[in-house]
Structure formats: structure tokens, C-alpha cells
Amino acid sequence: MDSALIPEGAKRCPFPVFAAGIAIVGVVVLWGVYAMGLCWLKGLNQTNMNDYYGFALWIWADLAVIAIGGGAFFTGLLRYVFGIDELKNIINLTVVIGFICYSSALLILAIDIGQPLRGWFIFWHANVHSMLTEVAFCLSLYFSVLTIEFIPLILENRQVDKVPFFHNLGHNMHGVMAIFAATGAFLSCFHQGSLGGVAGVMYARPFAYREGLLVWPWTFFLFTWSAAAYGPCFTLTVLKMFEGITKKKLVKDNVVHLLAKISGWMIFTYIIAKIIDTIYWATVTAPSQGFKLMDFYSDNAFYGIWILILEIVICGIVPAIILTKKSFRENSRLLLIAVVLGTLGVCLNRWVMVLQIMAVPVMSFDTWALYFPSWQEIATTVLPVAYGIILIALAYRYLPVFPQEKELNAD
Amino acid sequence: MKVDRRSFLGLGLGAAAGVAVTPATWKLMDDSSIWTQNWPWTPVPPAGEATYDNTVCSLCPGNCGIMVRKIDGRPVKIEGRSDYPVNAGGVCLHGISAIQYLYDPSRIKAPLKRENDTFVEITWDEALDMVAERLTEIRASGSADKIACVTDQTKGTIPGLFARFLKATGSNNVYAMDTMEKTWEITLEKIHGGRSSAGFDLENSDFVLSFGAGLIEGWGSPVKNFKINSSRKERGSTLVQVEPRLSNTAANADVWIAAKPGTEADLALGIAGVIIKESLFNSAFVTASGKGFQELAAVLGKNYSPEAVAQTTGVKAAKIIEIARDFARSSAPIAIAGRGRGMSAGSVREFSAVHLLNCIVGNINTKGGVWTLAAQDYEKWPAVEMDDLATAAFEQAPLDSAGSMAGLFTNAGKEKNIEALLIHQANPCFALGDAGSVTEAVKKIPFVVSFSSVMDETTQEADVILPGHMLLERLEDRPSGAGVAQRVTGLSRPVIEPLFNTKNPGDTLLELARKMEGTIGASFPWESYEECLEAVTGDLWAELSDQGYAAETATPPGGGVKVDFSFIVKSQAPVEMEGEAKDFPLVLVPVDNVRISAGSLISSPFAIKTVSDNVLKGKDLLVEINPETARANKLSHGDLAVIETPKGKATVRVNLFEGIMPGVVAMAKGLGHVLDNNKYVGGKGVNINELMGPIVDPVSGLDAAWGIRARLSRA
Amino acid sequence: MKQDNHGKNHKYGMVIDLDKCTGCGSCMVACMSENNVPFKEDETRKKDSITWMRVYKLTNGKPFPETEICYMPRPCMHCGGKGDHGHSPCVSVCPAVATDYDHSTGIVSQIYTRCFGCRYCMGACPYHVRYFNWWDPKWPEGMENYLSPDVSPRMRGVVEKCSFCFHRYQQAKDRAYVEEREEIEEQEYQTACTQACPAGAITFGDLNNPDHAVHQMVKPDPHACGKPRNPKAFRLLERLETNPKVYYISERDWVRKAGDNYLEGEWEKVKNNHDKGHE
């Protein structure tokens, strides 16, 4: 039915099956869109956020998708700037994931603000001292870069490519992609960092506050580093999911192992930095403000020290060991465990830096604030996931996302 | 034109580029943000010239001077009047909220009559005719003495007009809420002889021993007492608070003595015993003025030794002795009674035991002591004209011999029937103990007329409503009371034209009297309430109308006082709580929360907003218990629980507070209103008066209930 | 001018005597009434109840009958931020300059029409003085007539907070200008809560002006960002270097201790230091 659009030589499931799948996910999208509409029309009272929880579930989702979308900029950097050529076989996937993640992030921000129609004030009346201003500028610029990176892939669609203009355009864009990749990497470094800075600069919130270098708190660097380190984990997780669902091998092992190895060493170095940061914070920064480490992890029903251990040990040290050791990462089951743990780890880090910050009491007579999101929040948080699934499914079906697919599946 | 894919895409791109370049996009973006800044549903208060009007707050007996800030004649804010002798600039949250009372959603906008279960709007003429005809009928049937009237207080010309109206019709059934003021009057009469009301010169006292009086919970004249309390440190004055729970007053006091609830009289007698035993009393005063002192000393020595009292009250004997010595050795000690706000009567035994302390240190009618104030006499009323009907009926015994409002409705529910009830600024169906039975009693009254401005629980039972002006719309004199030593009469003045079709109750009564003709009409010769006020206040009017108040200098009444100590010996039976300890192991006590108004005044949305979530959460009221009590009853903080008393039961939540005596359950007064139109205040919490009943004091006949036995279990 | 500060900058601040505060709530209602603060049906969810001035109830945590309580009114602290340069936690993070530090008064402003509701400032503020308008403000029919034109009602979706009744400052300045005066008197500019407090627990004035009561009460140390030199005075969370302009006074040790967070043993040292004073 839609075979004319499907990349040459690729095998795809029958259209009705595909359409049914899309329809099911589409229902979730509609649910999310309905909730989004409620938030826009009736206001943020549709959420369970409150004056203690000004940032809540979807801001965590926002930071998390940006972190796991970090695979795009980092792989782009490796491929185009450092010239690691093998990665061209997975770069398309990272770009699609990045595009999905960043468009989702922007959508979430548009729902999150109390006055969406004034959202552009962040550019017009920008306060250059605010980390959020930096986030907004870099995020939107980087999204433009991602769009530009995504266009050549779209142009490679069998039918589009037939138009000479688009063919040439695509070709030429490929030629200059290195510049965009470099720009993207630069922008991305900054806004990943500034997202970390959002929490780190809150010097009156001892749980979040970090000292740092010049105007940048340590979380600035940790966020960039962790996005670069864990982003590829998510890329590989998605790849493994694809391969599982399609029951096909899509990227050669050497490429996967290379990316896994790089990710492993990144996580390894990151987690050392994170441990040093945590120790310094727990023994110097927080005590100087009158807090001991366990103040942040006790006297409440949810946040125990387990969350720190889970983040650093289980989702940090463990994937780092698996991915850095050749025999481990080449074991496909261990590899899968590592990339999933890594993805969880970075999401958990963002959770802590968004939600736990709000929960920890600062005034001695204040109490822990715990919060549970409303269905509207959950729906709008699930929305990007569903949207992502649809977009990535469309991309896979109609675009040559995996250059090695044909070769690997030639029968 | 054929649109192929290429030109289609071209057009698309072109359009996108066009949209980006055209100023329309940017203009629309800007416009939409401007729209969000001027949403038509967000009010924009009109600007205008700012002016201030002075008036006097009449929401409680405190009578503070207030200033109303107006913009183009529209009241926008209430502030304290800084040159006013009572409050000197301060103002309580309820006073500030008068601005909300003005526009209260439950205000009555026009005269109403009951038709089956609903109210129907009628004209003033119709309404007044209905009332006049009905009252005339009742009079004609020889039941003039079965007409009753309840008002918020007895002083001032509006309550005066009500009393006059009743007298002219032939009824001596005028009642006001049973308050500590009444009990103090009876106590002073029993001990000193003669009628006088109590004034407490707290600002000149250097040692205040308060038996549960919530000096900063709104006792007496709230703002005045806030100020007095606040200057305590500078004045070197000590406050000792006796109370089973750490109230705000207890927390602010220098010493908090947690005596078992209901044992205040015993503690006072124990302290007196120590003072007498150690000869710390004012023997010159006692010898010169006292009668029966020796007998008293003997009784106290025998029955009220510190050890015995320690047993009863739970206060250590050493503490009792220490307080006694500190009290007696102060230069101007004063002991005060009247629980919480003092809006409940309390037992005469307790008041006289407390007042005994003032008597033995001789601090009566002295600086910093208790003053026996003669009745205020600025009101000069012409004699009431009474026809034979009225004269005969007026001779009949009142429906409650003690003049107790609680007694009135207890009786009304029994044998003596009230034929008609006039209600002015009182809400007995909410504010009296055993409110459920009171409501039943009111329902049985054939004809109920309310003069209320808002639809409260009692007004909902009315047959005719003659709605009154609200505070800011209304003229009224406000004589001082509430235990204030310095007398200040204030003038409440309208600062705005009435918002609705309401009348000053004074005017309503004048018109009603005229409609009833004869001697009744003749007893009300004034054209309007304003004219009446001017005539009745006489010499005071010039000062009142000129500066808004008339203040007397604060000097203790001259002339000696006699003290009859034998009365104290006689009145020894304590007022017991209802219920058996074996069924109801806990003690429920009502608590006045300064941010919640109890009595006839319903809290404002502002006030309710300030109430802690440990008192009110959602629609649930939280009762306060000690963690120990909670453990014993297997409850934890926030749990839903059922509180049960011999009078009724209610579902509440539990608030754990270390500062309350184990075994005691405290519950805020003033919640649990049923107000159909006011969702900000109505339907929240439980009315404690549904759980507590009145207990008639054997001496005064007033309601002396201070608590009730209760049990608490998980819901 | 005999002021020892540089230039003519004011630094408006508040001193609250916690031993006088009775928890009566007048300040809260005076503030709501002055500043058109809306109310809704259920205000018992205190985490979304807009109270520019909020009175906290603190307890010493001891069992009956050793229990003590203290009421602590908490307006916006109008933090000077680290080094007292105006980088208050909230101002420094606002992406759209919707909240700003006025160096001539020390007041942290909030422009409702500029705010687009990102709530970053709320996260940054440890005192919870910032409130978001989760709902459209609505008054029962007719009640919008009592709204004051001095302070505009806020639309849904923006953050609001205590302004130290800045409109009153402007009105006082206007009056002074008309009367051709340079400066306004201490009594000419007072916040609504200060004025209403029946216990006289709140004092307001210019911390830079040695003639003003607030200055005399706390004796702010100009070399330590205004840290109080009165040993009984303290600021909330002093250790975070937010440099609030709201000071509290209490004779009670446990109350002063509750003003900040201390590790084991630290309070004893601080307390002793305080008692020595450092004039």
C-alpha cells in the first residue's frame, strides 16, 4: 500500500499492522493532547503542583529527555568533529532520537509555563544572569540545528529523493553537516550545562546548591558530562528495542561496541567526578549551611539514602564497569543491562535534581513536601513518549535510518 | 492551475518564509501577550480619589475605632484608628474583614417572608404589616408576655429600642447571650452587694493571674488587651495563665499552669488559702470591709490546703504556694476569670473564688485592680407608654427567671411556649449549647422575626426577615463593656450608602411601632433612628458626633466596697460535666481561636483563610489531643475519628499537640456553620455546640458548661 | 545628611518581635486586604494558599507541660543576596527580569505582567514567600468592589509575593514631591501589616538610617551585610547568605535557634558568640 515510500530493499511489516500500532499509540497521544489542552485552557491548577512543588513531574521529564537525547550531540561530535567514521551507521538514529527529545522538551516547556502566550518574554526581556535564559536560547537554537540535521535524512526518502532539487539539497547539506554538528555540540554542551546550573545556582537550597567555576556551579559540568555519557546508553537502548521488535539486526556489533565503549569510559569518568562532587558537597558545602548529609535523606516517607546509592552505584558504577570491560560489553545481555541502567541512572539524577530539591525542607521548622502528580500531568508527560514512538516508527518505516540494515538483512 | 508536488512544496516553503517575514506574526504574538495582561475576567479596580472615614467597629464588644479607606466613595480597606482610646491604631483580623462582611455572599438583600421551605422577597411595607399584625394579634390574645427578643447585647440604643418595644407591647423577655460579663455582675453583686459591672484595670496591674481568660484569644476588648499584653515587659508586669492547654495566651504568658479543666475554682481557693495562712493578705482592707472572713479562712484552711488542691487540680503544691506568694507580694495583682473570649458565662463559684483573690489583697477599685463600675447612664429614655394590656402582661414572670438565653430556649422546648421571637444580631441556633435542640425549639415558635443582615442558622428559621444594615452602612452607639476599666462610648457611622434594600434595625423598630399604633406607637415619638439616637444620648451627642467617641477618664470608682466572704463559703458545689467517666473517659473543652469568630458573628473568608490546617483541613475540623491520648486511643495525626459525647457525635480529624493535657480534647468554637450561599465559610468543620449542652449554674441560672465528657475512636 | 551609608540609598526592612507576636493573624488579613490577595473555597491546602504574609507556628518540641510555642510572621525577606549586592536567590534566576532588586530601596519587586510563570524563583526561595496563581482570582459577586486600585489583581499563571507595600512608598514619595520635600519620614511609609499589628510586634523602616527604630533595634553590621549586632536578633537562614531584610527578635534561645540550621554543637558556639556581641 505504502511500499513506494519504503526504502529500497528494506522489509517492513504490512501497512494495516503498522497503522493499527500507530492508532493504538495515537490514542495515548490524544489523551495527552486532551490533558495539554486542559492545562492551557484551565491553567496549571490541572496539575498537583503547588507553591512548594513549582517544578514537578514534567519538568523532570523535560530534563530527562534532554539528558537521554544527549546521544545526538555527543555522537555527532564524535562522528563529525573527531571523525570516528563507524558511527555514521548509528548517527541517523541519534539524530531522530535527539529531534524527538528536544521537540518534546520544548512542548513540555510550553505547557509548563503559567502564561504560554508570554513565553517569548524569555527572549525579549532576557535576564542574562539566569540559567533558564541560557537554557531557552541554547535549547531553541539547538533544536533548529537538530531540525537541520534531520532534514537530510527526510530528503533521503525514496520518493523525495527523486526530486532533483531535494536530492541536491540533501547532498549539499550532508557536506556541511560537520559545521552544524560542531555548532550543535557547542550549543548542547551549554544548555545541558545550564540545565544543571538551574539547580546548582540555587544557593538558598542547600540540597541543590553546588560551588563551581566562575559563574558555573559544578552541576553545570556534571550535567553536560552525564548527558554525553548516558545519552549513547539511551541510543543503544532504543536500538536494542528496535532490534527486538523488528527481529532484525540493524547495526553492526563493532559500531555498537564502539559506542558502548565510549559511553562506558564517559560514565566511568563522570561517576568519579560525581562521587567527588557528592563527597565535597556532603562534607563541605552542605555542612557550611548547617546540614549534614542524612538530613537530606531522612524523616520522610520516600527519599532515603537508597536513592543516592541507586544513582551512583547501581546506575553509575555498574554500567561503567560493564561497558568499559570488553568481555562484559560484548556479552549482549550484560550490554543491555548496562545501557538500561545507564538510561535509568541519568533519569534518576534529573529526578533528584528536580523533585528532591523541592521536597527537602530548608527552614528548620518546615517539613518535607511530598507530591504526587495529577493524571493531567502524567498524561502530558506520557504524551512525548507516545509522540516519540510514532515519529520514530514513521522514520524507521519510511527513511533509511539504518544504513547497514540492507547489508545485515540480505537473505 | 495544476499543483504538482514540486510547486506544492515550493508554495509551502514560500508560505513559511512569508509568515516569518510578515509583521503579522510578530504583531499577533505581541497582541496575544497583551491580551493575557488584560484578561477581561481579571478585575481592574477603578482608580479615584482616596478618602478616609472614621467609624467604630461593632463586630464584637471591643468596639475599636476604625478608619475606612475609600476610593471615590467605595470602601476598600479597614485600618485601625490611631487616635482612638481603645485600640490606638491596632485592629484585629475580623475588624479588617468588615470590608468582606459588607459584600458577604450570605447577605440578605431585601425583606423576606417564609413560604413553605423557601423565602420570598416582599416589600418593607408588607413585611412590617405582617409583623405588626401578628404581634397585635398575640397581644390581643393576652399572650404579650410570650413575645421574646434576643439581641447580641443589652447596652446601647438599638438593644434599648428592642427592650422598649417589648416593654411597650407588654413583655419583659429580652435576652442577650450568657457571657462572662453577666456572671461577673452577679458575682460582684453577691460579694459586694449592689449592681455593678466589672472593669479590669489590666494596664496598671503588675501581676495578672488569669484563670483561663484568653487575653490574646480575644477576651474582653481584644485589641485593647493585645496592646496591654504587649507592653507587659516594659511595664514589668507578670502574666500567669491557668489553662489545661497551651493556648496563645498561655504560650505568651510568663508562667503557664496546666490545671485540670474545671478545677480553676479549687486552684483559686487553694491560692487564697496560702495567702491567708501566710498572712500575706491585706488585713487592713479585709478587717475594714469584710464580713465572714474568719469562717472563710477556716474553710480554706480545712478543705483547701495546697496538698489537697494539688490533688484536685494536678498543680504541684509548691507551685500553688509560689504563685500565692508572688500574687500577694505584687503591688497591683489582679485575678481574672472568663474562659477564652469570655463569651460564655461560666460558674459563679469559679468567678467568686477567683474574685476572692482580688478581695483578700484588697485590690478592688484601686489602680490596677478590679473596678465595680456603676451602670452607664448616658441613655435618657422618656418613659414607656403602656396600655392596660401591656401593663398586665409586663407583670408576668419572664420566660426564664434568670434571664438566660440558654434557659429561654430550654424552656421554650418544654412547657412555656414562646409565641413570637424577635432576633437581632444573635444566632442562638448556632451559638448556644445543644444547638440542635435550640433549633428544634426555635422551629416550634409560631412566629420568628429576624433583623439579621446575613442568612445565619437562626435566620433560616425565621418567618419574616427585616434585614438590617451591615456595620459600614449603619448608625449605632457602642457603649463600652467587656470588662474594660475605662469607659469609651463609640459611634458607629455609615460610611457608604446601603448596598441593598435594608434598614437600620432602629428605624425598622420605629416603623413597626408606628404600625402597631396606640401606646406602642406613642412610645416611639422619633421620626428616625438618628433623631432617636440624638435625643436619647442627650449631652453626649455633641461629643459623639464630633469626634466619633466619648471617653471618660479612667479613674477607679470612689467610695468603699464591702466584701461578703460568707457568700464564697456558701457557693461550694462545683459545676460538673455531663456524662459518666466510664463511658466517656476524655474531657472535651471548647477553645476560642482568635482567628475564628464564634458567637453571632460568622467568620469572614479572610479569617477562614488564616486558620491553620491543624484546625481545619478541607471540610474537616481537627480536634487537638496530646500524643499520649492519641496512643491510648490508637490514633495518629490526621486520622479521621469519631468524637462522641452524651449530647451527640461528629466525625473529626486528629491533631497531635504536645501542649495539651493528656485526657483532654480541645475543639475550636465557631466552625460548622451551615450557610447555603457562602461556600468559603459554610460547611466547614463541626459546631461544638452540637456536642455540648448547657448546664444551669445553681447561683446565676446562666449556662455554666465548660466542657463535656467524651470518647474518641478511629472512624 | 548624617547617614553613614554611601549615597542616599534606603534599605527598607522589618523587625519582628517574636516575644510580642500573639499569632492573632491581623497582619495576614491586613496584607490580604491591602494587596487584593484573592481567596478560594478551600484555603486549607496551605501549599497553594496565597498568603504574602504567613504566620508560622513553631514549637520547642518538648512534651507537656514543658511545651512552648512561638508564632513567626513571614513576609518576603527582600533578600540582598550574597554580599548584599542585590543578587537575591529569586532575582538572580528570573529569566525575564520579572522580579528585580531596587537598589534605592532594597525592595524586591515583582512585575505581574512581565512574569510568564516559569516558577524558577519559587524553587530558588527557601522561605516559600512566592506564590503562584494556580487559579484565576475570583471574588464572589459584588465583592470585587472592595478591591483597591493601588495594587493590581494578578492574573492566573503568574507569581506574586509581598512587596513591602511598595505602592505605599510610591504614594509617600509622591506626597513628599508635591510638598517639595526630598525625603519621606519614617512614619510616612509603613507596611499594612506593621500598621495593623495590635501587639506592636512589627517595626518597619530604613535599616540604613540610624534614626529609624529598625536600625536601633537590630544594629545591622554594615561590614557583615547587615548581620544584626543585637544578640537577641537574628535573620532566617542567615547561613545561606541570602541577607534578608526581615529581622526577628526573641529572648528565647530555642526560637533563635529555630531561625537557622545547625550541626551538632554549632548552636552552642553561635549562642556564646552572640552573647559576647561584637560592637
Automatic annotation (TrEMBL), chain A:
Primary location class: membrane
Keywords: Cell membrane, Membrane, Transmembrane, Transmembrane helix
tRNA-binding keyword on record: no
Domain of life: Bacteria
One Pfam short name: NrfD
Mode of membrane association: Multi-pass membrane protein
InterPro entries on file: Electron_transfer_protein, NrfD-like, NrfD_menaquinone_reductase
Cellular compartments annotated: Cell membrane
GO CC annotation, single: plasma membrane
UniProt protein name: Molybdopterin oxidoreductase, transmembrane subunit
Lineage of the organism: Bacteria, Pseudomonadati, Thermodesulfobacteriota, Desulfobacteria, Desulfobacterales
Automatic annotation (TrEMBL), chain B:
UniProt KW Iron keyword: yes
Keywords: 4Fe-4S, Iron, Iron-sulfur, Metal-binding, Molybdenum, Oxidoreductase, Signal
Record Pfam families: Molybdop_Fe4S4, Molybdopterin, Molydop_binding
UniProt-listed Gene3D superfamilies: 2.40.40.20, 3.40.50.740, ADC-like domains, Dimethylsulfoxide Reductase, domain 2, Formate dehydrogenase/DMSO reductase
The 4Fe-4S Mo/W bis-MGD-type domain, residue ranges: 50-106
MF annotations from Gene Ontology: 4 iron, 4 sulfur cluster binding; metal ion binding; molybdopterin cofactor binding; oxidoreductase activity
Alphabetical list of PROSITE patterns matching this protein: 4FE4S_MOW_BIS_MGD, TAT
PANTHER family for the chain: TETRATHIONATE REDUCTASE SUBUNIT A, TRIMETHYLAMINE-N-OXIDE REDUCTASE
Protein family (similarity comment): Belongs to the prokaryotic molybdopterin-containing oxidoreductase family.
Name of the protein: Molybdopterin oxidoreductase, molybdopterin-binding subunit
Organism: Desulforapulum autotrophicum (strain ATCC 43914 / DSM 3382 / VKM B-1955 / HRM2) (Desulfobacterium autotrophicum)
UniProtKB/TrEMBL annotation, chain C:
Keywords: 4Fe-4S, Iron, Iron-sulfur, Metal-binding
Protein name: Molybdopterin oxidoreductase, iron-sulfur cluster-binding subunit
UniProt domain 4Fe-4S ferredoxin-type: residue ranges: 12-42, 106-135
Matching InterPro entries: 4Fe4S_Fe-S-bd, 4Fe4S_Fe_S_CS, ET_IronSulfur_Cluster-Binding, Menaquinone_reductase_QrcC
Keyword Ion transport: no
Biological source species: Desulforapulum autotrophicum (strain ATCC 43914 / DSM 3382 / VKM B-1955 / HRM2) (Desulfobacterium autotrophicum)
GO MF entries: 4 iron, 4 sulfur cluster binding; metal ion binding
Source superkingdom: Bacteria
